[in-house]
Amino acid sequence: MTEQNRVVRLARRPVGLVSNDDFTIADEPIPEPGEGEFRVRIACISLDPAMRGWMNAGKSYAPPVSIGGIMRAFAAGEVEVSNHPLFKPGDKVTGLFGAQKYAISDGQGALVVDTDKAPLERWIGGFGMPGTTAYFGLIDIGRPKKGETVVVSAAAGAVGSMVGQIAKIQGARAVGIAGGPEKCRVVTEEYGFDACVDYKAGNLGGELAAACPDGIDVYFENVGGEILDTVLPLMNTFGRIPLCGLISAYSASEPLPGPKNLRSVLVNRLTVRGFVIFDFADRYEEAATALAMWAGEGRLKFREDVREGGIDAFPETLRLLYTGGNVGKLVLKV
Amino acid sequence: MTEQNRVVRLARRPVGLVSNDDFTIADEPIPEPGEGEFRVRIACISLDPAMRGWMNAGKSYAPPVSIGGIMRAFAAGEVEVSNHPLFKPGDKVTGLFGAQKYAISDGQGALVVDTDKAPLERWIGGFGMPGTTAYFGLIDIGRPKKGETVVVSAAAGAVGSMVGQIAKIQGARAVGIAGGPEKCRVVTEEYGFDACVDYKAGNLGGELAAACPDGIDVYFENVGGEILDTVLPLMNTFGRIPLCGLISAYSASEPLPGPKNLRSVLVNRLTVRGFVIFDFADRYEEAATALAMWAGEGRLKFREDVREGGIDAFPETLRLLYTGGNVGKLVLKV
């Protein structure tokens, strides 16, 4: 039997939580690279909360994955065959290669990475989408000053854990919001946040106020919904809110109510700014350099939640992101 | 009978719409200026939507007016007696003098104005809080580029009408949102906006989309609530939303639901920024210079809704702002 490609395609637009039936997973012939292209044998696939948004129809920062189209995904692997001058067989590469075993790339957005410096998972994990997102969202939009308080939601997550650690490196106080005592423990003990508040414990407002005696200067938002509403009145004058994700709304089929406390944005002269990492594409190297430097100094810790199971486990693994089933950056080995 | 001061004091915190009973209005002795102070005989008082917020308890950009305290208000008048080196008897001045007939000032935030250039009402009207607010909110936060589309809510109001006119001066397309056909007529015919949509006509989303065929780049927000929710999905990538006021919420005793369409802020990478003119205090002269220049060139039109009635008419005149009873900048003659 000849080796085949294995491809995850979008079968229909999900309603609510992603289900297995939203995808088809099937064997297909291994594709051949054309002029100026190369083929990657994918070793691991990055699972990111943004994926749920990519599956929806309608205007977004990137076109939706088409019905029948290969599911969009960051992935890492090895170049097998190349007709591209900058990518050679044996190169380890990352890029938006899709949820499949073999991908063709023209090199756009693809990077050759050094697996002597960090394992391949880290290049689509800590140093990949999550690290880059945390870096630009916090440094460029949050702009924390020494001694300020940075709060981040989904703090045990891939982006959140990086945000707090980078905040500490910048001399700020880092406070996380996470769901459940185990996640909170990871946030303070492993990632070194100054405090972490469990939103599931039922008194987020009071506990967050106690954990932030000088108020909140930067709120890095991954979640939205009630958590945002609770944070808004605690913001200090001229606070900044990088709006990175709205996990709470991704799987909702009806729009969720927005923040009642919008007045806080006016009264406290807050800046709420949405962003996506693609906007910073010309500065990826800056982020990678800083992240690798801090990691080399032992100042950044990563937790990769690497799942086995191969391509066929893609839907169930993806679902973990929206049910709180993972701790740290979720990666699927192919 | 000796001449007395007449003073509006806050009797209690209003619930919902402002009522007469929220104030006490009484005669008091005329105050005498101390060292470094001067006394103003007030000629007219500026009525501004922000006043409703100043009456509420709780954290805001300025401390709340205390119960029993003189109602905070911008006003204009003439210096009568002065122990201040920079203010001389006969000077026409504006400042945060309060809702009363005679005020003492130490000169902070007070400006001597030239009534040969514009009548006193204009210095607390078009050139005062509304003009300054429109100027900094649009120029600094909205940053409209030539050919972009600027939408402003409460477009027939004092701030809104200036925003659209300044947008046109900057080479942008100006679209207003106002309540009722008469206000919309004023917005397009008198203030020269390119279009104005009547939110009371029941199809704001559809009509606004039709009036903004290239989408919305800057939304100058005075209202909040459902109008903001309707505008959000029409915003273009990297759009800016200066958050100037939330009139719809000022008189609400319960928090109103926030925007369901917050996801648009993320997806379109919008910047929502709250501001108040006090933040730009060191640049008031820049705004006054620009506004006076444009007015001198005939490029800015003002509509002052100057009410007679004196100090005792303060509560009922203020109420007009929240019931849509005025067109243009509301000023009360003392």
Let me know the average pLDDT of chain A: 91
Q: Helical residue percent of chain A?
A: 25-40%
Radius of gyration of chain A in whole Å, from Cα? 20 Å
> Total number of helical segments of chain A?
11
Strand-residue fraction of chain A? Answer: 15-25%
Q: Label the structural class of chain A.
A: alpha/beta
User: How many separate domains of chain A?
Assistant: 2
User: Which consecutive residue ranges of chain A, at least 5 long each, have pLDDT under 50?
Assistant: none
Q: First CA to last CA of chain A: what distance?
A: 19 Å
Query: Superfamily at the CATH H level of the largest domain in chain A?
Result: Medium-chain alcohol dehydrogenases, catalytic domain
Task: Write the CATH architecture name of the largest domain in chain A.
Answer: Alpha-Beta Complex
From the spread of the alpha carbons, the general shape of chain A counts as globular
Q: How many β strands of chain A by DSSP?
A: 15
In terms of quaternary structure, the protein is homodimer
CATH class of the largest domain in chain A: Alpha Beta
What fold name goes in the CATH topology slot of the largest domain in chain A?
Answer: Quinone Oxidoreductase, Chain A, domain 1
How would you sum up the major sheet of chain A? 7 strands, mixed
The largest chain-to-chain contact, stated as pair and per-chain residue counts, equals: A-B, 36 and 36 residues
Order of H and E elements of chain A: EEEHEEEEHHEHEHEHEHEHHEHEHE
